Amino acid sequence: MKQVAAVVGAGFVGKAHIEALRRLPVPVRGTLVSSGERSAAAAKALGLEHAYTSVDEIAADPDITVVHICTPNYVHFEQTAKLLRAGKHVLCEKPLAMDSRESATLVALAKETDRVGGVAHNLRYYPLCIQAHALIESGAIGQVKLVHGGFLQDWLTYPTDWNWRLESKLGGELRAVSDIGTHWLDLIQWITGQRVEELCADLATVVPVRHKPRGHVESFSSAKNVATDEMPIETDDYASVLVHLDHGAKGVFTVSQVSAGRKCKLHFEINGTEGSLGWNAEEPNTLWIGRRNQANEILIKDPSLLSPAARPYAAYPGGHAEGYPDTFVQLFHDYYNYLEEGDFKAPRKFPTFATGHEELLLCEAIQKSAQDRAWTKLNWD
Ligand code: SOE
């Protein structure tokens, strides 16, 4: 069945979804922004044929088979549930919901409606992250023993930096952990094939008072010369989390959105019994391969040098850099190919609603651990 998509939300990530869909190609019929008027402007600016005025209108549109949710976290549950019930497949930006109660409901609802749910953990789709997964799966670095790294940004360094994620009622009680910590957790668990079974977390709000502009501010942008109100902040700017994984690996990660000079430094180092792998999203086309008994290597993204499992996820020849926008294309390839094949009982290679639910369980364990100042076990059953 030919898929036709609609995208809810046309901020920077909504635009990334639309661009990636066009490259597959999957037709994007229209978009919905916060108001009908803004939808019309966004549809015109993006060259889309239709501007929706509500989620209900999308739900009722018989031409739409898939909806991408690119809205603030607090509306993910309501929008996703409505669209599943209307018979739409849904690919939702992370985090899937505000808490694990909501995400568990969405997992069950997707099953009940036989719709395919995906979560946009796109950062695992950098070609060299897939290569890291393939190398570990092949035993190239032996048994994984240590995992460390983190995700560092600086777009919220100043008290005058503002974004809806800062307010727990819109983004959830955790911010840096749920917004970017979940990317690191998803990446490491997927690359190593190991799941976190217990953790110990320390969180901090580094900037306790911020200046909230009176008006809309896009992510990664700052409002200039507008009136502001001072707001106390309770969500985390920073977290460091010790982790124990279920096949023996141990490690630690640090997330921060106030690390001046770090723009989007999602990074890991994985140490195995025979070697190590290191990668950094700010230089995503190189993979560091560490050895004890021979020279270390730097692998530059080149499909001809990648494992058979990773090769299809590199769209361009060696040295032709691939980056953040391309990760959405590769994620959507997996998701839409699955829809086209039509066997919804088949295993799913892409991050699913179950993945999103597990991420929320991890967030809640991190929150509990920080509150109790203690190690916290995950109850995956
Ligand atoms: C902001 O922290 C953000 O846009 C995240 O929401 C994205 O998931 C991440 O990929 C980049 O940074």
| End-to-end Cα distance | 35 Å
Q: Quickly count the helices.
A: 10
Low-confidence stretches: none
Helical fraction: 25-40%
The CATH H-level homologous superfamily of the largest domain: Dihydrodipicolinate Reductase, domain 2
Structural class: alpha/beta
* Count of folded domains: 2
Mean pLDDT: 96
- Give the beta-strand count: 17
What topology, given as strand order, has the largest sheet? 16-15-14-13-7-12-11-8-17
Bound molecules: alpha-L-sorbopyranose
Beta-strand fraction estimate: 15-25%
Can you tell me about this structure?
The model has no long low-confidence stretch (mean pLDDT 96). The protein folds into 2 domains: 5-115, Rossmann fold, CATH 3.40.50; 124-320 and 360-372, Dihydrodipicolinate Reductase, domain 2, CATH 3.30.360. It is α/β, with parallel strands linked by helices and 381 residues long. Strands 16-15-14-13-7-12-11-8-17 form a 9-stranded mixed β-sheet. Strands 3-2-1-4-5-6 form a 6-stranded parallel β-sheet, with helices on both faces. α6 crosses α8 (176-192). The protein is 32% helix and 23% strand. The protein binds alpha-L-sorbopyranose (SOE).
